Amino acid sequence: MTIENSESQSQQPKSIISYLWDLPNILSLAGLGCTTLAIYFIILGVYPAAMIGMIWAVAFDWADGLVARRMKGRVGSDQLFGGQLDVLIDIVSYGVTPAILLLSYGKFEPEFLLGAFLMLVAGAIRLSYFSVFGLADGSKYTGLAIDNNSIAIVFLFLFEGLISSGVFSVILYLIGLSLAALNVSMIKTPNLSGKPINVVLFASYTVAITAIYGWRLL
Which has the higher per-residue pLDDT, 8 or 23? Predict the structure, then answer.
């Protein structure tokens, strides 16, 4: 951390707003916009619209990483700033948003507070660990990557109308805690966004999810 700080301080600082014009950062902020919409619709109880926002937040998150890795000459403060921005947005998209979703679906009953808190704790620890240690062997995550939380929850909500809301709230609670446990586990999971075939599959999944939940909104 000390070395990283000294390196960042040695960089000639640019204006804060200038980082807005960096394409990966624009994509990151577009994902934050999707997350904002998701939280808005979660609070309103319009869950199909919230699911669309959540899955597109993941899509923009994957896109900013893909673009950043392919941009030449993006070094120094641009990389450091983009990495910090990405982590801060991730905790909102994959930590705060699922926690609010659990509370909302549980009608903000006090017993859901513990689950929401544990999900937030796991997300914060997971992202902090990755910020310090990065990928294991340069190719795998330690613990389940936190974006998988939203991918799994969006899939889970496809079955939301098939069972009673009371039972589904319990299932959502248990799934949320299970994902949190996997986030902070020591299992090694692959970097899915690093392979073109996975990008194609996820793009197809995003379009399909958008169509399904869009149809439910009609």
Answer: 23
**Contact by Cβ (8 Å): 24, 69:** no
| CATH number of the structural domain 21-217 | 1.20.120.1760
C-beta of residue 124 within 8 angstroms of C-beta of residue 137: no
Q: Give the pair of three-digit tokens for residue 185.
A: 């586990």
Burial of 189 (0-12, 13-18, 19+ CB in 10 A): middle
Question: Positive or negative CA dihedral for 67, 72, 78, 80?
Answer: positive
Going by C-alpha positions, the residue among 76, 36, 38 that lies closest to residue 55 is 38
Q: What is the CA radius of gyration of the chain?
A: 18
Averaged over 3-31, what is the pLDDT? 73
Mean pLDDT score, 107-132: 95
Going from N- to C-terminal start, the domains of the chain cover: 21-217
Beta partners for residue 141, in sequence order? 189
- pLDDT tens digits for 61-99? 999 888 877 777 666 777 888 889 999 999 999 999 999
What is the rounded distance in angstroms from the CA atom of residue 86 to the CA atom of residue 32? 10
Supply the mean pLDDT for the chain: 90
